[in-house]
Structures are given as structure tokens and as C-alpha cells.
Amino acid sequence: MKTLQARLHSIEWLATGISAFELRPLGTVHWPQVTAGSHIDLHLPNGIHRSYSLTNAPGEEHRYTIAVNRDDSGKGGSRYIHDQLRVGQVLSISEPRNSFPLLETAAHSVFIAGGIGVTPLWSMAQRLSRLGAPWTMYYSARTRESAALVEQIEALAANSSGRLNLNFDEGKSEKRLNLQAVIDAVEPDAHVYCCGPVPMLEAFERACSTRDPASVHLEYFAAPTLDKSTATPDTEFTVTLAKSGKQISVGADISILDAVLASGVDVPYSCLSGICGACETKVICGTPDHRDFILSYAEKNAGQAMFICCSRSKSVELTLDLCSIIFFFFFTAETAFSDIFFF
Question: I need a surface site. Which of 41, 118, 148, 254 has the fewest CB within 10 A?
């Protein structure tokens, strides 16, 4: 996976515990353009990798901006970013990836944001406003003071075809956003998007159970607990690398990613839980056992791609579009989206 060299250009306070970090290229280099819903991996000097949604306007290529919530209960990535990074520091980042794309031609787009999960939806709202397309956002947070970007979204809604509904629940269950009522009021031809903590996303999926799956979009920033009672039992299988013919045995207690890395094959990866999209791999032959939280139902049924950090195989052999070229530089990534967005 290609990396870019970035200089930390500025740090800006956004809300209680949340700061914006603006990254710019070294020299006159132009980066790949930002698309609504995309994210980058930040490679920190302490060896930790973290993934963050881009918040700047789609189309920009002279900078990338992210918003980071300091999570004292996380694994240390957000604390390091807040406490150690300084303006002027040079960092390595990945090129943007987009596993949460915006359908720009929808008749109406409805965004449901929980806390710092607003970040990819803010980028989408900016894009639709530029196109003159209608959108509605339901933004829920504990308090206004902890709601990042709220003033910017209010200004955008007031000067575009967008509408904003705010809900500050103060941490009380009786004040939480009624997702079922929200979804029930959405037109059948609208597309709905949700990003937030796991309980919100699970409630969102339940509320959308009768809608066309193609119109429902969500992004997890922490992997839900896998229901072992419905999962296919973990058994041994063989992965064949299509470009070289090399065969790798994948035991019941090891992931495809770990088995491939152990064999000396360099593969990009980041989150290790099927939520970031870094390890997406084309399937040539075989039946994947999809356990990611990115692919749609239709994409999983097609079986043309999989995420090898978490998914397995239902067939005894799986042929993947990988080769066995050995590299002598390896990295490890302790990545958890829970360190990115929890509030």
C-alpha cells in the first residue's frame, strides 16, 4: 500500500476532547483528491497505525484534514496524537481509501451521526451541497460542547439544500435519538447513511430491516462482537496465490492475513477486524466466509472480493489474487477504530 509523506500543518480545537489535524504534502506535490466518505491511515512514530475519516471538502488535493477524539480508555493512539504530535512534524500516511462511498444521484440523502461519527457524513454533506442535492442530517451527541463541527454544519445547512436536526442526550437513554421513528419517516427512494458507536449502528440496522439493502449504508469504527452461534466453524483450508501458484495452509486458529504474512508475502493491512478495507483481496476461485463489516449483502453474495484479516473460507481451497514476492520490510499495526471515534 503506497504511503505519502505529510507535514502536520495545523492543529485546531473543535469540541471538548476533539481536535482537527491538517496534513499537507511536502513541497509542491498534489495528493489524490478527497472523495466523500474516504479515510486515511496515520502511521504514528511509536509504531501504531490509526485510521481516520477525511473531513475536508471533496475534491481537495492540497491537504487532508481529520478530527480526532481523545479516548483515554482506548489503546493509546488518540492520546499519542493529542499529547505528542506537533505542528511541523513529518508523518507517513496512506493514500485515501473509500469503503463508505456516497451515491450522489440519490433523490434524497439522510445522514445519521453519533458523536465523532459525524466526520465522514460532514464530508458527504459538503459534496451534496456543492451539487445542489438535498440532504438531511440527524446529529446526536452528549452535549453541544462535545459535538465536533456543529457550527460548520449549521452554517452549511442554512446556506444550502440541507437540513440539520440536533439531539443532545446528556448520556440519558430516554433522550436518545429514536432511530426507528427517523427511518420510518424517510422516503422509500432515499438513501440513508449512519456512522457512530456500535449500539447506534445495530439499532440503525434493525430500523432499516425492511428497506432496500442497496439504499442502506453504514460505517463501523469498532467491530461488533461476532455471533459465534451463527458463524461457520473455523476449520483448516488452503489458500493458493494465483500469481505464483504457491499454496499456504491456514489453520483453524490463524487468519488468512497472518498465514500469508508468515509465509513471507507482503500484504497491506491496518484494522485487523474488517472495518477499514486495507486488506481487500480479489477472489479468483472458492467460496469466502465473509466476516467483515464493509461489503454489502450483494457484494458478499457475489464473492468476488474479501477482507483477509477477518474472513475465512467455506471451501477447502481458496484462490486469491496474490503473489509470493518476498519483501524484507514488514510492519505491524495495532489498529482499533474504537480509538478513533468513541465519545
Answer: 254
Q: How far is CA 272 from the centre of its chain?
A: 12
Q: How far apart are CA 223 and CA 275, in angstroms?
A: 7
Q: What is the DSSP string of 112-162?
A: EEEGGGHHHHHHHHHHHHHHT--EEEEEEES-GGG-TTHHHHHHHHHTSSE
Q: Which one, of 302, 308, 333, 339, lies nearest residue 322 by Cα?
A: 308
CA-based R_g, the chain, Å: 20
The 10 Å Cβ neighbour count of residue 57 is 16
Of 90-94, 144-148, 244-248, the range with the lowest mean pLDDT is 244-248
Residue 20, pLDDT above cutoff 60: yes
The rounded distance, in Å, linking the Cα atoms of 271 and 309 is 8
Please name the residue that has the C-alpha cell 447513511. Answer: 193
Which SS3 state, helix, strand or coil, does residue 258 take?
helix
**Taking all residues of the chain, what is their mean pLDDT, rounded to a whole number?**
89
Q: Over range 135-158, report the average pLDDT.
A: 97
221 neighbors 341 (Cβ within 8 angstroms): yes
Beta strands in the chain (DSSP E): 3-15, 18-25, 39-43, 49-53, 64-69, 90-94, 109-114, 135-141, 162-168, 191-196, 216-220, 237-241, 247-250, 280-285, 288-289, 305-307, 312-313, 317-320
Q: Is 192 exposed, middle or buried (0-12, 13-18, 19+ CB in 10 A)?
A: buried
| Sequence-separated (6 or more) residues with CB below 8 Å from residue 39 | 51, 52, 53, 54, 96, 97, 98, 99, 100, 120, 276
How high is the pLDDT of residue 119? 97
Q: CA 170 from chain center: how many Å?
A: 26
Would you give the distance in Å from CA 132 to the centre of its chain? 26
**CB of 339 closer than 8 Å to CB of 273:** no
Per DSSP, the three-state class of 8 is strand
The residue behind cell 472523495 is 35
Q: What is the DSSP string of 263-300?
A: TTB----S-SSSSS-TTEEEEEES-EE---SSS-HHHH
CA-nearest of 81, 129, 85 to 104 is 129
Please report how the helices 118-131 and 150-158 are oriented relative to each other, as an axis angle in degrees rounded to 10. Answer: 20
